[in-house]
Every structure is written in C-alpha cells, then in structure tokens.
Amino acid sequence: MSHSVELEVGVSSPLGASVVGEGVNFAVYAPQAQHMSLCLFDSSGHSEILTLAMHMNEGGIWTLKVSPLKSGALYGFRADGEYAPEKGLFFNNHKLLLDPYARDLYGEFTWSERHYGQMPVGKLSQVNNAIDMPKSRVRELAPYTGKKPNHSWGKTVIYECHVVGATCRHPEIPKSLQGKFLGLSHPSFIEHLRTIGVTCLELLPIHAFISEQFLTAKGLQNYWGYNTLNFFTPHKEYLVNDDISEFQEMVAALHKADIEVILDVVYNHTAEAGTDGPILSLRGLDNLGYYRTVADKPQHYINDTGCGNTVNIDSPRSLQLVLDSLRYWVEVMGVDGFRFDLATILARNPNGFNQAHAFFQAINQDPVLSQVKLIAEPWDIGPGGYQLGAFPAPWREWNDKYRDTIRRFWKQEQGVIGELAKRLHGSFDLFEHNLRGPLNSINFITSHDGFTLADLVSYENKHNEANGEQNRDGHSDNHSFNCGVEGFTNDPQVSKLRLQQQKNMLLTLLLSKGVPMLSLGSEMAHSQGGNNNAYCQNNRTSWLAWKDSQFSHPLTRFIDDVLRIRKQFSIFKHRFFVHDNDPRYDVAWFTESGTNMQQDDWHQGDRQVLIYSLTDKHTNQALLIILNAGSEPVTCQLPNLDKGKWQLALTSIHPMSTQFVDKEHEIAAMSSWVFTANSEDLNHG
C-alpha cells in the first residue's frame, strides 16, 4: 500500500469498515474518547505503517475515509482519553483495539501483560500490545442467496453440535476438512444427519473467541467457545484457507440437504472479563456504555454472567451492535436462527428481567430477525435470573424442567408421574399462560453442558479432574443412574441395561410434544469419561470416536425408527395444547388394568409406569405409549380399540417388530413401548 493517501472526513453509517469506490470508510463509536486514531498495518500484520487521526461526528461516532484502500487491508483503532478505572474509563492510546464491527480478523491473539491498562496496578501501561493482537481486516461478502429450508417448528429436530467434536475424527472426511466448517458440510456428515432425521444443526459458538488466560496457563483451552472476541467474524480456527466465505459455503451445502443452521450466540459477556481484564475492544472504546457497572461505583462490573462482565443491552449502541450482528449472520452468512446463551441478560433492566425490554421489541418489529428461529437459554446467575416460561412469543426456550423430570423418572425416582405427564405434553404449566403452545418448549435430556447421554447411564458422580479445578466445577446434581457400576465395565448385563436406558430416554424425548434437541454423539453412545463440564477439553474427551459406520450403531437406527413414528402423527406438529373436548385430538391416561387414570392414581407415590394414548380423529390414527421405569415387569391390559388390534411399533428391548399383540401384554422392567392402531375411536370405557 502506498503511503500517499487521500483522507476525507467519512460518514457515520454503517459502523465498521466499508469499501466505497477506491477507498474504505471507517466508523467507530467512542463518545467519551478525546482522540481516535485509525492504524493501518502492512500485509504481515506486524508493522503499523500509518496512524491517522479520525474525525468526531455527532452521536459520538468517529469517522475517516482513506483512499486508495481496498478489501484485505489490515487495521485497528487506538482511543485516547482519560484512564481512570475508578470512573469506569479505560482509554489508553497504547492499546490496539479490534473494530467491534470487523467482518474479518487476521493473525493470532496471544496473552501477555501488554493487553492490560496498568502495570503495575495504579500505573498506566505505556506498552504497545499490537504485536499480540489480531488485526481487523477489511472484507465484505455478498449477501447470502441460497434457498433456506424454512422448516416449521412442528417439523424441527435439532442436533446440538460442535464444529471440531463432530468431524475431527471422522474417517470419511478429508484430514484438511476435519474440525472445520467445511467438514460439517461434507457429504458423509450430511448423510449421517439425514440418516437420523435431523432438520436443524445448532452450532456451539462460532463467533471469534479466545481462551481465558487461566486456562492457557494450565495448558488447556476454551473448547466450547463461550468467550467472544468479536460478534461478526467466524472463528478462524474453523476455516481451511482463512477465508470467511467458507462459512457461507457450509450453510449453502446444508441448506441444499434441507438442513437449517442455528448459531449458539454469546451476547451476554465478552472476553474482556472483569475490571482487571484486558483492553481489547469495547472496554477501550466505551466501557460505561457497553458494560453494566454498579450504580455509583463505575469501577465495579455487574457480573450476572459469572464471566466477569455483563453486556449492557440497555445502551442503544450496545443494542444496535447486537442487532446488527444478528442481521449480518442472517442476511450475509445465511443462518436460520439463534440460540441465545444466558438470554435473561439480554432483557435485563436495572430492576431485573423485563418482558417488554427494547431488545424483544426491536427483534419483534425487525423485518429480518422476526422471521428467524429464536431460542432462549432462559436463565442467568443474576437476581431473579431463572425465567423459564417468561419469554414472549415467538421465542422458544430450553426447558431444563423437562430435562430433569425425564432423568428423574428413568432413574426410578418416585412421585414424578404427574410432572412427567406435563412435560411429555409440552409443559402447558410453563407456556400456556402467555398464549404460547407446546412447540415453544425445546425439549432435551442432554446438551453440551453436563453428562452425555451415555455418561448419564454410566456415572452417578462427575469426574472432572482433567479440568484442573479439583473436581469442583460442573453440576453435582445430575439425576444420573450408573446401572450398577461407576464408569466403564465389561459386564454384558450392565452394558445391555445402559443401552436400554439410553433408548428409553431417546424414545421419551422424541415422542414428547415440543421441539426435540439431540446433543452431539447421543446417537453413538459418546462418552466423556464422566466429565460433565468438558468446556476446556479440546481432545478425545469431547471428540466423537466414529468407531462404527454411521449406519450401524443401534442408537443411530433407533433414533431413525422413533422419528419415523413421530413424523406419522400430526399431534406432534400441533401448535396448541390439547384439552378435553378438543375437536381433533384426544389424550387419555390409563392404569395397568386398562382403566382410565383417576385422581388417586396420579397421587400414588410409588407408581413408576405411565400409559397414555394419543388419538387423531381426522386421520383415524392412534398411538399408545407405555413407559415402565420400575425394576419389575408389569402386565398391562391394553386399552380397548373400537376395532382391530394394537400393533407393536417399537420397543427399547427388542428389535423392530410388526406383530399384532393381544389385549394383555407384559411390559419388561425399565423399558418403553410404542403401539399403533388405525381406529375410528378408542373405547375409553
């Protein structure tokens, strides 16, 4: 790049770096900065070749247009002003700052003392951190033009997935693509997803992130990615050729296979951590605007995330940053929706969670964002942070009450039958009060956070020693059941029971009303060796083993079998709760003797069998489900049919069968059964 450049004031919108003719317009928000500099680097990213003063515009936005300059140019910002942590001000001209709107990054982030504002404490650091910082890179991709699947929620089956863990050991994916975005779009992985009936891939965080310093000091790294550095850039380690268009390419391939892509996004905190954390981007531009601080004590952050800082969505510019990022990932990168980590944060006012928060209102009226899939993790660790059921339409929510109830039932905990029935039918007690339906519940039994499905039936205690925190991290109350032996065993009876229990929970999940979510590896009994908090385990603890052909594992086939049944019955697509006198659907509950459940039956504390039928009067279809969590077999009288016999469709203990069954049937201990019938009516008498 020639050092002979033409400089103009530039324009305030859009924020970030935009190619305009032969030049690039730069715009950054820093309302309390006294001076702002644009720093341009050579192609290696090592040499700062130009430092240019920017111009203050109305609204606190600094701008500069530089010509000639083109896509690929490397840059950063420096903000000068008062450095006074006790006032919540962290301006330090010696710190190179990432553009919050950078579409691309170049180079590596390296932890060092250079990133901190004062060394030693109390003395302003005058050390330039540029050598340890990635550089913002000018890059503009054309908007996404592929056709999106647009699956209805009633047809959606989510697979929660990690880019690396899913593909880095897959034998049919080329080494160069393993652990990359393009590995997820490889035909062999797409074929696997289609084999188990997945319609939606939910990716753990793929925004550019860094590992926390306390992890790197222990030789570990942040594997999950919940430590965001930039809200617009794909994580560079997931790229093959350092080209962000590979993400678009992945999305397009998945869309062609009729699979949607949802991103797990982290807008609740950033990698700048607490007050004593590094100055990397937002903190050095507008700390008091971007982060929540304690009233009258701006030197202290509010830490409702447990990660040191909390993004202040009440600030109009913070809200704009989040909305602009979301819109970019939909319009340019092509994604179909988002799962919001610690979503309660996004709707917090100083007085707590607000269902009418500007964040909800802005998304609801946005012509782009109001049309995508929106999923909340409906809690944070702040006051009143647990908000399951409180999000407005059209939001969906992770339902941890569903998760815990299913686990408690299958580990043989007594007294849960009544709550189990609520969870199986969409959790009306949580969602109906604000005019939402069963499809607002994202049902799951396992996720990235906690035991895998295989470990849930293999361990009763967490085994997180490898995380370097003396096994203090991770949840201790897992509602898990090890089937008689803690951890690995060669005992064939224990192994048989564990497989059966995994099938029981998968059948329960996939035949519940709501939107089912499978976690990575549930279809192949993936184990993390009892680690229920593998956030820092970027190794074989977290990576799928792919020992068998993707078609041969019994759980892979079982999931496919259950989802085939789910697709045949429209009640699972129905958007409303089924109540008495429903014109189309009927739900009935039975005792083991075939009679209707009465009030006393529901309150029978030792009852561990649940029997219910789902009838579609329009299609003359009936489904009978029997769940026996008890340790003894139970002889059940199947409910009367108006005509014909019940047909065994699926069970967790036998291979697939098409046999018709007699009215009386023995239900094995710790097993689940599905029967189907074509019937004009069930005789409930």
From TrEMBL:
Pfam families: Alpha-amylase, CBM_48. The keyword Lipid metabolism does not apply. The keyword Hydrolase applies. InterPro entries: GH, GH13_cat_dom, GlgX_Isoamylase_N_E_set, Glyco_hydro_13_N, Glyco_hydro_b, Glycogen_debranch_GlgX, Ig-like_fold, Ig_E-set. Residues 156-566 form the Glycosyl hydrolase family 13 catalytic domain. Keywords: Glycosidase, Hydrolase. It comes from the Bacteria. Belongs to the glycosyl hydrolase 13 family. NCBIfam families: glgX_debranch (TIGR02100). This is Glycogen debranching protein GlgX. It comes from Pseudoalteromonas lipolytica. The lineage of its organism: Bacteria, Pseudomonadati, Pseudomonadota, Gammaproteobacteria, Alteromonadales.
